[in-house]
Amino acid sequence: SAVISQKPSRDICQRGTSLTIQCQVDSQVTMMFWYRQQPGQSLTLIATANQGSEATYESGFVIDKFPISRPNLTFSTLTVSNMSPEDSSIYLCSVEDQGGRTDTQYFGPGTRLTVL
Amino acid sequence: DQQVKQNSPSLSVQEGRISILNCDYTNSMFDYFLWYKKYPAEGPTFLISISSIKDKNEDGRFTVFLNKSAKHLSLHIVPSQPGDSAVYFCAASANSGNTPLVFGKGTRLSVIA
């Protein structure tokens, strides 16, 4: 399976600021995904990041709040904009199975974000 | 409205015994199911999966059972080991992987030595 790293691993931010989270994969993958896990909740898909095209956002998530970049097949960023305490979560990136199955995904270690 | 439910937030099991983690789903279009294990400060790790054309899949100490009529699946770990202590997430997808994974809230398993 792919090796996925995320930066930063954790951060504490002030309300109203923005944070950009980086996700790096050790092999080329077509699809990368960004998830959020709020305290006590399940993992929720924010968007699918496709190289060379706009990210596809799930219901309840918008590009202005969570802009995503995907400049190449091994890297993506997620920005959490104009943060509020409700954005305090673990943010995870994932990639699809090397065989191309998008329903078997491998996850990075996550970024734990606390907004004060 | 949760489509994937893990009704037990936690489970404690003695080392060497069987751990059974349960998961229920509501969407009859789900056709692929996965279990992930998550340690603190790490991302979820893929554990085992099952397609809706099967009712059982086994990998070492881990076996997943699927009961389509009851919309229920379970993960059996036998024998349980202290290193199995983690949060286990059930996930499902529909349309042979062309729709996003839907996760349950997880069950925290503690294996007591």
Keywords:
heterodimer, A: 116 residues, mainly beta, 7-stranded mixed sheet, 4-stranded antiparallel sheet, 11 strands, 51% strand, globular, B: 113 residues, 6-stranded mixed sheet, 5-stranded antiparallel sheet, 0% helix
How would you explain this protein's 3D organization?
With 116 residues, chain A is an all-beta fold. Chain A has strands at 4-7, 10-13, 19-25, 31-37, 43-50, 56-57, 68-72, 75-80, 89-96, 105-107, 111-115. In chain A, strands 2, 4, 5, 6, 9, 10 and 11 form a 7-stranded mixed beta sheet that branches. A 4-stranded antiparallel beta sheet of chain A has the order 1-3-8-7, with no helix packed on it. Chain A is globular, with a radius of gyration of 13 Å. Helices cover 0% and strands 56% of the residues of chain B. By secondary structure, chain B is mainly β. In chain B, strand 9 (86-94) and strand 10 (102-103) form a beta hairpin. The chains are: A mainly beta (116), B mainly beta (113). The A-B interface holds A 1, 4, 9, 33, 40-45, 48, 58, 92, 94, 101-110, 112 and B 2, 4, 32, 34, 36, 41-46, 49, 89, 91, 93, 96-98, 100-101, 103-106.
